[in-house]
Design goal:
mainly alpha
């Protein structure tokens, strides 16, 4: 797991690889076969809100990791939250 958030207590986490580059390679066949489920969204939120959201996503990753193993297919699960160069989004109408 690539952790890009700097933690005051532990310092910056090492960057071993970009999880989304790995997921893009792994998911290419599923995309072509029509068996890929994915979303990408953008939101103008504070760094604190992004950190809180990441904590919730970390819990979901732990839940995925704990699922009982079954079936013939191994599924990948990629999540991330990151700042972008997108312009500030307008307020919802």
């Amino acid at each position: 797991m690539l952790l890009a958030r700097v933690d005051e207590e532990f310092g910056e986490m090492p960057r071993d690889f970009n999880d989304f580059e790995v997921a893009a390679r792994e998911s290419a066949g599923a995309f072509m076969d029509g068996t890929f489920w994915g979303f990408i969204r953008h939101a103008g939120i504070s760094a604190e809100q992004a950190g809180q959201f990441w904590d919730r996503m970390s819990a979901l990753v732990a839940e995925f990791d704990a699922l009982p193993r079954s079936g013939e297919t191994t599924y990948g699960f990629a999540v991330g939250i990151y700042p972008t160069d997108h312009p500030t989004l307008p307020a919802e109408a």
